[in-house]
Amino acid sequence: MVSIKNLQQANEVLGTFIGSAEKRYTLNRMTRLMKYLGNPQNSFKSVHVAGTSGKTSTSYYVASLLQAAGYKVGLTVSPHITGPNERVQINLVPLEESQFCVLLTEFIDTVDESGIKPSYFELLIAFAFWSFRKLDVDYAVIEVGLGGLLDSTNVIEREDKICVITDIGLDHTDILGKTIEEITPQKAGIIHQHNTVFMNRQSDIVDNIVKEKCREVNAKLNIIEETDLGLPLPSFQNRNFGLAKATVDSILDSNKRPLPSSDQVTLASQVLIPARMEIFNIDGKKVIVDGSHNPQKIGSLVEAIRREFSGTNVSIMASFGKNKLPSVQDSLKILNEISDDIILTKFNYEQDDIRVAMVDNDLAAIARKAGFSKVTVNHDAEMAFNNLLKKPSELCLIVGSFYLASQVRPLILARS
């Protein structure tokens, strides 16, 4: 039996699940665990969110709008930025530390009794499903971890599940495929019999693959044409929020509930989304923390920074995982459009699986090829952050990995 008293102990216990399970991109183990737990994932209505870019933001927006409509809403996202209790949120508030620890202790004891040995991600997704049933949510918003078809979240069997597909691009190509034609069916794999599906209009390739999947399983597809809602959000977040609003408006219409007022919509759009163009003020500088880690996401971020901070001098601090090697030069070329000054570092953070940062000296060579003329290497992330703040630039950007954001964000909170 385990005994977890605080989040530090929770991290220590959860850490024993990193790399403990056989690596398999399959639902077999998760399906067995869900059956042992009594299939909690089917005990509440859910909104299942897949895609390459915007999954987390769209999940937060859906949860915020559902809460504004009066529902009790569960939310699970990954990776977490501040603490593992972010994986189980009720009405956009992570479970309070003592409650999280009590529930996690009970849950891990139950899993141990099953004889099933889940991965870190499987354990926390199962824990979120189990907790949402125990806490009696009306809706749960479930963010996919990787892909969709074989992701651990893809065990929900209810026909009334709502599926949301955010913008699809190239990422995790070593697992999901090297082309949009290969990746899109993985994302669309969350769509089951008679589900209802929402997505913004994308390329013809993406649209047609999703349409075909919906035909196969008799799902209802709603393709949303992007509209300007007049909200004070970056353009890419306006797109995500518009998708979330169309989804929730349809849910409320089906349930014969009134739509949120314009004031409620505006308030819902301002929900705090950690490490998604999150802006801090430190010693007269603006510091942006964003977990963008592929060219599609970084391109949207750079466009937003250009619009909101036109003419502002920018210095960058970045780290990328080794798995981003195929795309990192393209990502750095895009970042070079707003700055010629970059500090490269390494993150030291483990969750979901053992994640390894790219060797910063190797990354420095790639940065120079991408066009950066001022390239500094600081092996320690805290030292890199302190040096970033010493730069004369008015705007400091920390980017490249959610694991880097997780490591640096506490340093920022201590100073802002």
Report on this structure:
- The structure is a single chain.
- With 416 residues, this protein is of the alpha/beta class.
- The chain has two domains: 7-269, UDP-N-acetylmuramoyl-L-alanine:D-glutamate ligase (3-Layer(aba) Sandwich); 278-415, Mur ligase, C-terminal domain (Protein-Tyrosine Phosphatase, Chain A), CATH 3.90.190.
- It contains 15 helices and 14 strands.
- It has helices at residues 7-15, 28-36, 55-68, 97-114, 120-134, 173-176, 180-187, 204-216, 235-254, 262-269, 295-308, 328-335, 360-369, 381-390, 402-415; strands at residues 45-50, 73-76, 89-90, 93-94, 139-143, 162-165, 196-200, 220-224, 278-282, 285-289, 314-318, 341-344, 374-377, 395-399.
- The longest helix is centred in the middle third of the chain and has 20 residues, at 235-254.
- It is globular and about 55 Å long.
- The two termini are 40 Å apart.
- The mean pLDDT is 94.
Supply the key terms.
single chain; 416 residues; alpha/beta; UDP-N-acetylmuramoyl-L-alanine:D-glutamate ligase; Protein-Tyrosine Phosphatase, Chain A; 2 domains; 8-stranded mixed sheet; 6-stranded mixed sheet; 15% strand; globular
What is the mean predicted local confidence, pLDDT?
94
Q: Which architecture of the largest domain does the CATH hierarchy give at level 2?
A: 3-Layer(aba) Sandwich
Unreliable stretches covering 5 or more consecutive residues: none
- Cα distance, first to last residue? 40 Å
Pairing-aware structural class of the strands and helices?
A: alpha/beta
Structural domain count: 2
Strand order of the largest sheet: 4-3-2-5-1-6-7-8
Shape: globular
Helix content: 40-55%
Could you tell me the radius of gyration in angstroms?
21 Å
CATH level 1 name of the largest domain: Alpha Beta
Write down the CATH topology of the largest domain. UDP-N-acetylmuramoyl-L-alanine:D-glutamate ligase
CATH homologous superfamily assignment of the largest domain: Mur-like, catalytic domain
> What's the tally of helices?
15
Total number of strands:
14
Major β-sheet, in short?
8 strands, mixed
Strand residue percentage: 5-15%
Order of helical and strand elements: HHEHEEEHHEEHHEHEHHEEHEHEHEHEH
